[in-house]
Amino acid sequence: MDKRISLIAANWKMHKTIGETVSFIETLQKEVGPCTDREVMIAPPYTALDAARKAMTMEGYKLAAQNFHWEEKGAYTGEISGPMLKDLGCDCVILGHSERRHLFGETDEMIQKKLAAAFKFGLLPILCVGEVLEEREAGRTLEVIGTQLERAVQGLSREESGKIVIAYEPVWAIGTGKTATPGQAQEVHLAIRQHIAALFDKEVANRLRILYGGSVKPDNVDALMAQPDIDGLLVGGASLEVSSFKRIVQYQ
Ligand code: PEP
């Protein structure tokens, strides 16, 4: 089995101006240097994508958008399409983040269309899945995530499915300071891999990179990354300061 290259991703949400974005990326690259054994991905707001692309000059740094619309163009006021993100130099797009699902009403059906569109327009999709607290407490975590996964990958080819990056983000851990323990995260990551193996096959499942997200901090990063099925991290709050994100990128 090929080694899965780890991916440390920053989701800045609705934070940072163009100037702040450029200054962050320049400082991070200066302090971390080029990355060859891991990838670093930054998802600034749409308004800073162009500046971020220009500031990313070192190997191993990738640019992501936080969302997009599945259509190529049309009467969709306020939306941005895949070709527009490619035009800006984006490599990846985050899909189905819990804030998109819960605050903006994104459904599994919309996320499935976005996933298919990401492949159509040449963007690497980072598909977020995760359960809310009541679902975890009711013992429904794996069932909820299984359904989100099945609906999202409908219609994808085997090749495409092996390329998706999945981010397991328990909703109760996002921005709350409550992190899943490394053991809790590993259990779900393994179940995701097994689910993908059942939907496609083992080879596809072994290629799949599965990130953990939810209150990742410098002091829990090493234990999370030591788990065999955690291939990277999706980081919100702790990605906004260079000092903490740098420590996360430099996990041991
Ligand atoms: C996120 O929003 O993807 C996230 C994981 O946020 P935080 O790290 O702040 O919990």
TrEMBL record:
The keyword Lyase does not apply. It is found in: Cytoplasm. Its EC number is 5.3.1.1. The active site is at 97 (electrophile), 169 (proton acceptor). Keywords: Cytoplasm, Gluconeogenesis, Glycolysis, Isomerase. The keyword Isomerase applies. CDD domains: TIM. It comes from the Bacteria. One of its GO terms (biological process) is glyceraldehyde-3-phosphate biosynthetic process. GO terms for cellular component: cytosol. It catalyses: D-glyceraldehyde 3-phosphate = dihydroxyacetone phosphate. GO terms for molecular function: triose-phosphate isomerase activity. It is an enzyme of class 5 (isomerase). Substrate binds at residues 11-13, 175, 215, 236-237. Homodimer. NCBIfam families: tim. Belongs to the triosephosphate isomerase family. Involved in the gluconeogenesis. Catalyzes stereospecifically the conversion of dihydroxyacetone phosphate (DHAP) to D-glyceraldehyde-3-phosphate (G3P). This is Triosephosphate isomerase. The gene is tpiA.
